[in-house]
Structures are given as C-alpha cells and as structure tokens.
Amino acid sequence: MKILQTPVRYYPFVGGVENYVHNLSKGLIELGHEVTVVCANEPKVKSKETIDGIKVKRLNYIGKIANTNITLKLPLELVKEDFELVHTHIPTPWSADWSAMLSLIKRKPLVLTYHNDIVGTGVANGIAQFYNLTSLKLVLKRANRIIITQPGYLESSPYLKHHEHKIEVIPVGVDTERFKPVKMDKEGNVLFFLSILDAFHEYKGLQYLIKALAIVKEEIREVKLIVGGEGELLEYYKRIAESMDLKDNIEFVGFVPDKEIVAFYNKCDVFVLPSISRGQEGFGMVLLEAMACEKPVIATDIVGAAKEIKECNAGMIVMPKNVKGLANAIINVLQDKEIANEMGKKGRILIEKKYSWERIVYSLLTVYQKCLYPHK
After folding, report:
1. What are the counts of helices (DSSP H) followed by strands (DSSP E) for the chain?
2. Within a domain: residue 220?
3. For the segment 312-355, what is each residue's pLDDT rounded down to a tens digit?
4. Is the alpha carbon torsion for 285, 27, 293, 194 positive or negative?
C-alpha cells in the first residue's frame, strides 16, 4: 500500500501530531507498506531525505498563521505524488485542505485524524472560527474516514456531530520498546512537565502547576519541578516562578533532545500534565510515555486516557484550573512511595495492554483497507 502523510511539520520537529505521524509511519514501513511524508521544512534540515525507511519531502514556507506553516508549493508537490491513500491531520489547516482537494482530483481515499478542534486567541480565534464554518466543513465532508483519539470529542466538538457514521475511535500509541523503566540515580521528590512553551501551548496549564507547586512546597520542602521545553513564554514562566519564591524549586532545562527524553521520564517521581482546554488538548501523548516508563501521572480530566488512568489507579485525575486539587494530588503521590510505585506498575500494564504502537498501527490499517476496499 502506498500512503501519503501530510502533517504540517514532521520529525525532528517535536509535537504530538509530529510524533503520531512518525510512529505510525515507522509501523507501516515495518509491515511492508510505502510511506511518503510531505510537510513544511521546520526545523530546517534536508529538503529530501529518508528517515527509518520513510520518504520525507520538506517544503519552504513563507510564514505562519497561528500554528500552521504556509507552504506555497504544497499543491504542486502533492499533485506529483503517486499514492493509493492520503492521510492528513487537523488542527492545522492548509495541509488538510490541499490534501482533501488532491484526494478529490485524483479520486483517492482521504483519511483524516482529527486530533482536536482548531481554536485560538485574539485575531487567531477569529480566523479559526471562520475556517471552522467554511473550509473545515468541506474537509470533514470529503474524508472517507475520520479518526478521533478519544470518544469524548463526539460530545465536546461542535464540528463532528454530523459525521458519526464515518468516525473511528483509535487512540495514540507509545513505543513500548523505547519508553520503559530504567534504573537511574534520582533526587527525591522530582516532578516533570514537558511541552512547547509558546502561546499556542499555553493550554498545557504550566502556570497552574507552578501555582500548585507553591502549595506543595509548604508541605514538602525538598521538591523540584523539572520543566522541559522552550518557546517565547519561557521568560514569562520564569517570572511567575520568581514571584512565588520558587526559583530554587523549578529547573527550566529548555529543549529536551529526543535521545534524552527517556532518561528525563525515568529520573522523575511523578509526571504532571495539568491541561486546561478540552478543545485544544489532543490526547496527552506524554502521559503515555511517562506511564510506559512506570511513572505515576497526574493530569486533568480532559486528557485522552483520564478515565482509564483513574479506573486502573495509574495516577490521579483532577479538574482543570483547580490549583489546590492539583497540589493535593501531588502531595499525596509524593508522600506515599509505595502507592506511587504501584501506580507506575499499573500504568505500564495499561500501556502494554492498549497503547502499544503495534496495536494502533493494525487498527489504522483496518481503516485504510475499509477506504480502499469498501465493498469487501
């Protein structure tokens, strides 16, 4: 099978959609399929290369609208491609719009993974709303199948309600061979948070975690929060930390290289993802990676695996923006190492049972086959 993937960006760019496409493509290659990725050249690397058997074509872009790179050569490059099926992704339009148009012109199936709604702030929100009422409708209508990563989207998203008949729920996955528990020297009471620290990813809730840490510090003096990631809001978060007398309790380590991420998960005691926007939080893939490393997790009830984390006791789930509730959850997990260890083990079992990429790839292949051979 020849599959064309059209994310807005691709590995080595670090992000949820980028990781999703990279791991899915690797799994497809391992099963003998051909995968080509066409995307924006951010960060700037070779325009054409092969990564893990995946053909990658990167295009120059003239700028960004919100979080979307505008690649003027994209329509022409897509027309040149030889493929049987195109798989595109929302919440970044442009690539999705041209992929839908291409699938129509070439009469090829279109699969859309709807990671989350397109939203924004200020002017960007106005642009997002206009897009949602116009072009998004056409992309959703054109798609042969729409993948959502958690069933809650059908209830929370106002744009999916008329497309239930072609929606498939398939979660994101995690590489269980790479993300696994490793014995390492650790400091006591270490929290870990990982995200891009820009305005678009403010919904990850770091500001609430910093405020919660001030409460935790009153109970547990020797506590440290490791913040991984960089972006234009880095100095803003540092100022919040300093204003709350947390300078010695928070370490901003900047961009975490891909080869070091497993070590960061294994060095922490608890991974925390206090997301605040149901519309923007795609799934929370970092939670899966932390659980695969046998770490207890603390998250809000809007992340994709929240229900299962709570049911199997792999961590603690709190309400978004509830600073006191978040602080209490952190204190409870840090103060009982035995319970924390049990949570970590249960998280790993959950990952192996449901979230390995091998399982996810086979599920997506079934969707592809339904699109290519609808009458079988």
Report:
1. 14, 16
2. yes
3. 999 999 999 999 999 999 999 999 999 999 999 999 999 999 99
4. negative
